[in-house]
Protein 1
Amino acid sequence: MLIHHLRVLPLLVRMHVRSQMEYRGAFWLDRLAVILSYGSVFATISILLSRFDTLGGWRWPELALLFSFQLLAYSLGAAMSFTQLRDLEELVRLGTYDALLVKPFSPWAYLIFSGLNIGYASHILLAVPLMGWAVLSVDIAWTVHSALFFIAAIISSTLLTAAIITMIGATALIWVRSNHLFSIFFGFWELTRYPLNIFPGGIQLVLITAVPLALTSSVPVGALLGKPIPILGDWAGAVALVAGPIWVLIAMAYWRYANSRYQGAGG
């Protein structure tokens, strides 16, 4: 059965990519719009830094690294989860999720790989060059250890992002409605492109625990740069690395629980 699933997954991805690329002009115009949108955010940060030199003790190249890290980790994680889990609410409301339950296939795997969002290519096209410039510009002596930490932190941040989005989407299996929770998610997510130490203690605690999105950006980047990390201190780097795998396990357990509570469109 596992081998069968692995053979089917590339087919699901290929079919969805072909459908998204049917109107290529519209697809790439939309990608350009996204790049311009995030580019304006990046420009705003650069204007602030040109006036105040630092933000919470972070200089311009360090903030560029933080912004690009946050954007890349989000785009990789959301490509595997956001659109698919956002649409789950509609599947539950209309009763079409029931059809997935009778397929000889994992409902989660079918949702994720049949809806893989290549639209996040625009985020990656903006984040990778910016990250390359920032990596060369920050004041850090790169070693094998720091390079491995950087790569592992991106992977952990990607997993954490996908896990949180999965849990939000899975809530629709219990409540039917869950998309309002994405508004809360993105409200906190926008805060994580800035250093954690500029926020009040209460918000810092929330961004590390209840909505641990700081672990996808300022915590791992701050640990890499040797910045003081509120609350976590010297444990920041280790926590950032294990957060992704731990939250994936939590998301898997929550997905199974939500499916066990699902009663169908009729309630």
Note: DSSP finds 14 helices and no strands in the chain.
Protein 2
Amino acid sequence: MTPITEVEGRRISLSNLDKVIYPASGFTKGEVLHYYASTADVLLPHLVDRPLSFLRYPDGPDGQRFFTKNVLPGTPEWVRTAELPRSEGPTRQILVQDLPSLMWSANLVTEFHTPQWRADAPARADRLVLDLDPGPPATVVECCRAALWLRERLTADGFHVYAKTSGSKGLHLLVPLEPTPSERVSAYAKTLAVQAEQEMPALVVHRMTRSLRPGKVFVDFSQNAAAKTTAAPYTLRARPEPTVSAPVTWEEIEACEEPEQLVFTADDMAPRLRDHGDLLGPLLTGDEARPLPARAPR
């Protein structure tokens, strides 16, 4: 019999709680749900009002994966949704606004991915993201070197810059913005990536072409496009271990000499939150949001 739990007055069916989702560590679906419940206070603010895309992996990271933006069949009526424009016509996506919605979504075994804009202002980004993706044999260590240069460059344009692990191999840099059309943000982000490659040609590449990427850090600016999404802060990832897209300090980035120094799993997050709180909290307040520089491409 499928167990039912009540979360803030909402009844949610849970399933297969003993099923091992991460075989490398024996981490179960029940532990996935516990992780999301225990990090809800910091995770939810980064999801609220952002239309969700889900990467589902119900049989673990080695099983079949499903990436969806549309409202899932069987979505409870109390889960909020938003109608959003798309090139092929309006669509409706899920908004995870509260703990019941989070736990219902987590029961599907999901990564949470969000755009850089909110549902009430489609394609008007309130943050910029740069995804630093290392091409083997490069690792997150090389990403840290590129991140430090990009931080200095962004700071020179008046921005505050924050960082998190991707939860996979690389780093994400995040910058709070005054709401700006996504196409302008994408153009500015591309300029940064090109400048980084010009400054550090042995380290950085700005094009996605696979043959150019071995041993270099691909600065992916494309996730600023209105249609693109990025792994949300604190989401679990579909990796062999239950790794997390975890906020990190600049001191940790500066000190990184081995890839393992910037790998964080679900079990690491409670002590990190006790020590640091939400390192990405300033992204939520708007206090540090700045406009793109006047010389940014239009």
Note: The mean pLDDT is 95.
